[in-house]
Amino acid sequence: MLAAIEADNAGTLLQLVTSGSDVNELQDWDSGGALILLRPLHLGAHRAAVSSVEVLLAHGAQVNLLDARGWTCLHYLAVSNADSDRKTRVLQALRRAGADADWPTPTQQIPLHFAARAVAEEPFLSHLLLATRDPGANDVAGRTSLHYVALAAERSVEDVACSGYDGAAVSAITEDMQVRVAAFLLRFRAVDPRAPDAQRLTAADIAAARNRLELAGLLRRAEVPRSCIGSRWFMPLVFCLLLGAAHVAGLFFVLPLIPSILPSILLGLALVSTACAGFSAGFRDPGYLKSNFNAGTLPAGIDPGSFCYSCQHVKVLRSKHCRSCNKCVREFDHHCPWLNNCIGKTNRTSFYVFISALFIDVGSLGALSLASVLRENSRRAAPDGWVCSLVTEVCSSCNTHYGLGQSVRWVVLACCIICFVQIGAFWFFRTRNLLRNLTTNEVHNYKRYAHFKTDDGGFRNPFDRGVCANCHAYFCSHEEERENVLALLEEVTARSALSSTRGTI
Ligand SMILES: [Zn+2]
Ligand SMILES: [Zn+2]
């Protein structure tokens, strides 16, 4: 079967598959000297054999199965030497079948790391980047995709032997190619160029040490933080302006048409609650970890995966390093660009109040805008019912003086509907996570954490203690949570010690 895939001979492969060969079976493959235990789909991806991959997928090949080293088919595709167009087509076919671009190897390398190391072409890289939820992730040695770009031209025997990289292709990598890929990753702000690896080296340090001066220069320039106004405060400013403009428009054009004062009071209360909760969530310390270690290198006896190389400390369970704030946050949920702050253990309650109040605020303003549009409309003759008269209104409101106010009401209404749907969906997912005692980060990246995996590779949530206890843990005292986390940490450490013992045997 592997020979048919190498030749991309779909006819022979189809015969084999229909005659009962197992499409998911692990098989030995000779990769120019080294024997690798992989599945047919892995080889299909590595050869970017479009027809073979389609045949395999159509006959029950599972996309997220691992080879003997813990690679998925996307890891194989990322280091493929095939042309970008074929690789992109295979990537799209695998993605349609549910391939996960964030699946890490046992050393926490994601397919994007491999693609960066193999200096993949931009069209393929852009598709892979879009499919990757956490493109800035680092492996157990603290390396990001930019470190891998800087290391790309290095012919390490170990890398070539264990990764299936083609030696000739590696030596053909020029600095121009590395600069192109690094510039691409930087342009999309996918990876933090300041992130150090386990040896405290940034990608620029690695490039400079290898005499890639142009690449080092590009990475050094990217390391300089952008100006305050240019980045950090831009989104909060846009948010305040949009919210303010919608309410000013509502004050002048919507509320005067509402006969009762009560809706205005409710809207005002929702706006004040949004502002207060937003201010609290945006300016409060989200639970930054204090540095607990300062010796420059990884302390002996500590699992490299549980050490933050940027902050130089041992990570606490459920904490994560935020690349925007460049700090580790306890029970990291996500970084909110609209508030320019992380959402973590200590400000998540304010954040939940903020999005709830914003949801009510936008909903109320939308409902009042709709009421005012209908009311203004009913002043005019409406012989064919309100739907027909609304359509007439849209057409006439553009070019008459009478229609100015009505146009503003329509714009406010449209904006409110769009925001209402988006904030509603966000609120729904936040609430669901809250009831399950999970953070947004954990929901997206659970595969990176050993404590979410069952022994047979499935998912379990060790933090779920029932809806009431989960709500209590989210909103109230965290002391009890601490006890549980400490107990869990011991259990996880014991489990990982056990599994590493198994591995060495
Ligand atoms: Zn950190
Ligand atoms: Zn942050």
Automatic annotation (TrEMBL):
It catalyses: L-cysteinyl-[protein] + hexadecanoyl-CoA = S-hexadecanoyl-L-cysteinyl-[protein] + CoA. GO terms for cellular component: endoplasmic reticulum; Golgi apparatus; membrane. Its EC number is 2.3.1.225. It is found in: Membrane. This is Palmitoyltransferase. ANK repeats lie at residues 40-68. Keywords: Acyltransferase, ANK repeat, Membrane, Transferase, Transmembrane, Transmembrane helix. Gene3D superfamilies: Ankyrin repeat-containing domain. Residues 305-446 form the Palmitoyltransferase DHHC domain. The DHHC domain is required for palmitoyltransferase activity. The keyword Ion transport does not apply. It comes from Prymnesium parvum. GO terms for molecular function: protein-cysteine S-palmitoyltransferase activity. The chain crosses the membrane at residues 233-255, 261-283, 351-374, 410-429. The keyword Cell inner membrane does not apply. It is a multi-pass membrane protein. Belongs to the DHHC palmitoyltransferase family. GO terms for biological process: protein targeting to membrane.
